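Hey all, quick one. A colleague (J.T.) asked me to put the zinc ion job into the tracker so the inputs and the structure tokens live in one place instead of scattered across chat threads. No bug as far as I know, just bookkeeping. Sequence used:
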Amino acid sequence: MDYRKNIYSLSLNELNDFREAVNLLKANGTYDTFIERHHHAMMHATPMSGEPNNANIRNAAHRGPAFSPWHRQELREFELALQSVKPGVTLPYWDWAQDAALPDPTAAPLWTDAYIGGDGAGPNNLVPDGPFKDWVARIETSTGALVPRSTPGIVRMLGRDPLGFPTLPNAAEVTDSLAEGVYDSAPWRTTSTPSFRNRLEGWLRRPAEPPEPRMHNRVHTWVGGDMQPGTSPNDPVFFLHHCNIDRIWAQWQAANPGLPYVPASGGPPGHNATDPMLYLEVAGVTPNSTLDHHAMGYTYDTEPPIVPQIRLEALAWAWIIIIGGLMVTPGGIECIRCGRAVTRVLGVVSMALGVLGLVSQTRAGRAGVTQRFTPQQIDVKGDMHS
Ligand code: ZN
Ligand code: ZN
């Protein structure tokens, strides 16, 4: 099971491995295929009968129910690509609501040479440092083709893009989104309400809220520059951002186990539960096949531990305590030579071990620690911030 962490919880080794793997994918051309697929998905309109053929109403990956499943699959494909060049690497997430609480979110550690490079600088607002500084972006021409940009570098304008938005969504907005009581609703687009998907994506607002981008959309526009158009994976922060969006969806799913993905059928093409989704690396993946992210092979550090596993371990420890107890009872086996109760000593040790195991088990359960399922990922103490 791959274990996805907050990027600020990565050890120095883990962070460097992640940055190196991303750079290896850029160098071998794989990375650019993710930019292209995302761009094409965004350009591909998915109208229902009677709707105009317009990608701004709904497309293969946005403004409709498949928004969450499409990006979940895209992220998993990216994570597996990272692992193909650097075994063991997992995708970290950027909890932007955490940074929104800072006096100046643009001064967060993420935007430094040590993480993914800083805010754009100079006349072209190019990222001045970090591991992706010299990347060549792929941009759309007037004919709709994607070509390498003549000037190398990633364009970033944190909170100051004239076409963007100056603040990040905060924790209260995330909590509010999680309260939504259905996954999605007709007409399966930006006007859908009630709709967890529409609120997560950032089109749906409460009546009193001003007409501004929210949640997922707001983060794209806050980062600005290359994060704005359909080629937004040009900036690797795209994957950190969407990993956090995926984590929030997983939280909503866990809190609402009885609420299904909708529509099952009768909705827009590519958005029904069993429709194949377009422009993904793996053909034939449907929204249904992405609903259980544990089955896809990963979990988040903010998730509670997997319950059946916990109970099994607790049972094992309880058994050791019982055996220990039996061994210290009077009339246990005695040493043939000295007549001492050997089993009594063994029993006390066994009971002590059992109690220790049970206590640490319970603690781990409360703290949501899942590292024991992936021991190779236990933090090696090298956090960059703090
Ligand atoms: Zn997208
Ligand atoms: Zn996005």
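Adding what we noticed when we looked at it: Residues 342-367 form the longest helix (26 residues). The pocket of zinc ion (ligand 2) is lined by residues 216, 220, 242 (CB under 6 Å).
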